[in-house]
Amino acid sequence: MGSTKIIHVLKNDDFDEVFDLFKNAEAEEVIFIFPKGSRFAKQGQYFEAIKREADGKACKISIMTADPVITKYASQYGIGLLQTPEPRKPSNVRAYALPGKSAPAITAKPEPETAEEISNESEFAEADYEEKPEIQLTASKAETRGRVIKDIVRLGQEVERPIRVREERARPFEVEIRKEISESHSVGGDITQVWATREQEDGKKFMAAASFKKIKSSKVLKKTPLFFISGAVIVLMLVLYATLGSAQVIIRPQKQSLDFQLKITASSTTTSVDSALNRIPGQHFAYKDEVSGEFPVTGQKNVVQKSSGNIIIYNKSSSDQRLVATTRFKSPEGLVFRIPQTIIVPKESSTASVVYADKAGAEYNIGATTFTIPGLEGSPKYEQFYAKSTIPMSGGIVGPSQVATEEDFAKAQEELNIKLKEKIIRSLNDQAGDLKISDSIAIKMDVPATNVKTGEAAQSLKITLKGAADTLAFREADVLELISNYVSKKGNLELLEKDLAVSYLTPQTSADGQTMVLDIRVTGRAAVKIEQEKILKDIQGMKEDAIRDYFKNMGEVESAHVILSPFWVKSIPKDPSKIKINIEKE
User: Fold this and answer.
1) Is residue 144 part of a domain?
2) Pair 486, 577 in one domain
3) 3-state secondary structure 451-492
4) What integer pLDDT is reported at residue 331 of this predicted model?
5) Is 574:159 a contact under the CB 8 Å cutoff?
6) Beta strands 515-528 and 255-267: pairing type?
7) Which pLDDT band, with edges at 50, 70 and 90, does 567 fall under?
8) 292 and 303 share a domain?
9) Are residues 426 and 486 in the same domain?
10) Which residues contact 39 (CB under 8 A, 6 or more apart)?
11) 0.85 exceeded by the pTM?
């Protein structure tokens, strides 16, 4: 079953407020209740706009009203009309005005149980059914609406600030005046029942708030002189007048934009936040890893190049053997390869070495094989020394070939640098857990290991890159405390965490890894500090004009919203326990 929303429109509600409420209503049906004399009766375009919006969002709308002008507009623009319920009010029912409410509460007077029983009706006043005006005071003009003094606004007020800030334009505090009835499952969507139920509940609330008890009984009252009863009521009303007053003051401070940089230090030897030195505790983490990749080569040229590869040299004798640079190793096919540097092969052990073909050409690109050492031939060691390769020799060529260029190396190394940095930072973050690690930490890279050099022939470029990083992790809450203390000291401001952005720049870790210095950039907003205790003391007993002038002259206040209650109260109480001050920073 589709949802239904009921919107009570008060006599002085603006069209924009009601229309915004209707546009945001998520319901398949909306019912408007208009009183007589509503502002809506003055403009037929209001109903045309409501009908057009309803058709656009496929929402059914209906109107309930006793105002003939609104009834005419509803018929003119094709809006459904619901019958206005007749008030269920017998002759012995009296209406009383609810404090701060525009709609009356209905209280029924019970039938006397005996001829002598009466009720003390002088305790109550007839409801006037008129909306109690609010009072809104601004720096430019005063508007009436409720018992509200509103918008003592300071526009363009300069506040001294040593931080580089930009003052934002103040905006008045808004008062919510619309009324809305939520769906009631108990009445099954029947508008007449909703209306009747609302009146009964309002009546009960009024009777409880008024704290009056009907004085029943009869013989005693009958014998009591009327002026004694009237006097008691007057005394009671005076007591209530003098003691029930309260005030709520809602203050919005001026806001200022923040944009500054701050140098901070994280140290593993610091145990608490030090605002004087901008130091915070830190914890050291280190990690190293490697990445590999194979990349295409883009160069082309005529090449005369020797084949090369790797061999393992075995020494089966009982003594170490020194092999000088250019020592020959011969394959079964008689192809000779040479080692480029002198090496020592330990006794009864083995050593790995790179070898290069004795001549250029593709015929030296042989597969894995076993090599002898011709220099030892004819000696007992000839049988005790040999070498093996596990992968083919490669690179031998004479003629045009693809070669690795400097651009190939640079592009491949840049790609591997990014991958390795991401891998190391991700691993550090996993170690740090809830602690913060700067994404801009430096990674120490080793010299890449490659299969070819620049200008050498190859089918592809293979690179292995190793790197390591060490850094200090810290709590972002500690950074926020430093920022808040800095803002408070420099500009008499209170930091607003909403929309706050912090960037961590150029971290530099000490050689021992125990300290890290970094810059942070801070953007966001702050609110000017409000002396709440002073305001509470100053405004006690102030009347409406004095309240307006007081907040008008406070440069740190963007707007003030003062609510006096009950409706007869015209000044702030002198008792501070009956004054409530709220500072709305966000």
Assistant:
1) yes
2) yes
3) CCCCCCECCEEEEEEEEEEEEEEECHHHHHHHHHHHHHHHHC
4) 97
5) no
6) antiparallel
7) confident
8) no
9) no
10) 11, 12, 13, 14, 15
11) no
